[in-house]
Amino acid sequence: MSIANTVVDCLHKEAVPYEVIAHPRTASARETARSVCVPPDRVAKAVVLRDEGGYVMAVIPASRYVSVGALSRKLRRSLALAREDRLQPMFKDCERGAIPPLGPAYGLPTVVDDHLVGQPEVYFEAGDHEELIRVAGDEFLRLLKEARHGLFSH
Asked: Is the CA virtual torsion 10, 15, 16, 22 positive or negative?
C-alpha cells in the first residue's frame, strides 16, 4: 500500500509541503519513531474513540497514551476506545491500524493534545505501516486548524 489518497488530497488542498519517509514495517507508533530515529514526541498518532454520539479522533504524541477520562470530561461525553474492526469503513484507503491523524480529512471531529504544540516538525502515518509523512510542526497544526485542543494524555 502507499500513501492514502485522502492524506495526499488533504496535503495538496492545504498546500502543505511534506516529505515521505519509508521505514520498516512496524506495529506501533513508538516502534515507528524508533525505526526512523525520531523522538516519539514528534510522531503524532490517531486514537479513535466513540460514544452514543459517534466517533471522535484524539491526536497525541506517540510517547503518550490517551486519558479517556480526561478527554471525556473535556468533551462532556462518555467516550471509550473504538473497536478497530469497526473503523475500516471510515478509513477505506488505509491499512488496519495505520490511521493518519487527520480527522477532519476523514470527516471526524478531532481534538489535539497540546503536547504536540511547539514541535519543530511532526511525523505521522501515511495510511500504511511502512511510510511516514514529515511536515513542519506549524503546518501540521494548520491541517488541524478546526480541531479543539487540550491536555488529555499521560
From this structure: positive
Q: Which residue has the cell 473535556?
A: 74
Per-residue pLDDT tens digits of the chain, which is 154 residues long: 578 999 999 999 999 999 999 898 887 888 888 888 899 999 999 999 999 999 999 999 999 999 999 999 999 999 999 998 889 899 999 998 899 999 999 999 999 999 999 999 999 999 998 899 999 999 999 999 999 999 999 9
Per CATH, the homologous superfamily of domain 5-150 is: YbaK/aminoacyl-tRNA synthetase-associated domain (3.90.960.10)
pTM of the predicted model as reported, rounded to 2 decimal places: 0.94
**Residue ranges per domain, the chain?**
5-150
